[in-house]
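Suppose you are handed only two things: the residues of a chain and a line of SMILES describing zinc ion. What would the bound structure be? This form records exactly that question and the answer produced for it, so the two can be stored side by side and reused later without any lookup.

QUESTION INPUTS
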Amino acid sequence: MTSVVDERVTDEVEALVAILMDDVTIRRVGNVPTVIETVVNPSTGEDIDQQYVCVTLEVRLTPNYPDASPDIVLRNPRGLDDELLASIHSQIKNKLADCLGQPVVFELIDLIRENLTACNLPSGQCVICLFGFAEGDVFIKTQCYHHFHSHCLANHLISGKKYYQEEMDKLPNWQQVQAPPYQPCCPVCRCVVTTDVETLKSAPPPVESVNAPPFRVTPEMLAMQRKMSHLLARQIARGGVVGSGNLGPRPLTITTAADAVANNGPSQAAQEAAKPETAANDQPGNASNDCNEPGSPQRQAYRGPYRGFNRRGKPGRRGRGAVGPR
Ligand SMILES: [Zn+2]
Ligand SMILES: [Zn+2]
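ANSWER OUTPUT
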């Protein structure tokens, strides 16, 4: 299928490909360009190692582009906080309004690059220590464009390796041999991190952590703690917390003898299973042997996300837990 493409668009796409080469992706439907995508970095000359921030610009061309504005998406921001992204978005909006009727992709790349160059230092926090990046901090940018204090990443990688080894020691020999080898990975996106831990280790701890006042429990924290424990109790009571000791529901659906009958027909096993349940039920005339009866001291009704599925993973009869009175 071929369609007539606006010459302004053809020229723009041609120029983008000629200049950005592999760094730009043009998606088309037939011969019509629909999406232009490129990663924008700050200007640092040839020194790629000094680029601490980046963002992927996706320009979705609307049918009447450039007489109508394209839709702009900024994806995978690295080292940029929400405030800066919002600012870039609003500048883009103004730029689109100014440039209506003419190709705008180069203008957008320039605008974003200017912003990135002006703040070519990661904003936000180091996700390991939750302190920010301050002057004097030694930090590292991973291949996946995530930033950490070198000190923090060293500790993370060292304890990751230790944990791997501990888990490995629990396995029998034949499983140890088959297990994948330890790979240091980014705590944010799990991309493999290739860096020398020994060098990272020599970095000083984050400046803000050194200057932070000593930790003490504040009344706000205590209030938050009370609020959260109340929420947790409520979630446990509702079956929303899986595997929390004996307090909550079991991770698997609790099926009853009645379920077994419904799924497989009566069997000896089901009858056997029914006996203790009936005994536990202090209503003699009740033939349902439903262990999920509210108030039963033996088991609580399972009200978790998998109710309605039986142990074999097939959709089964919805248990009493789903419809019983609350
Ligand atoms: Zn840190
Ligand atoms: Zn990462």
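WHAT STANDS OUT: The CA atoms of residues 1 and 29 lie 9 Å apart. The beta strands are 24-29, 32-40, 54-60, 71-78, 139-141, 147-149.
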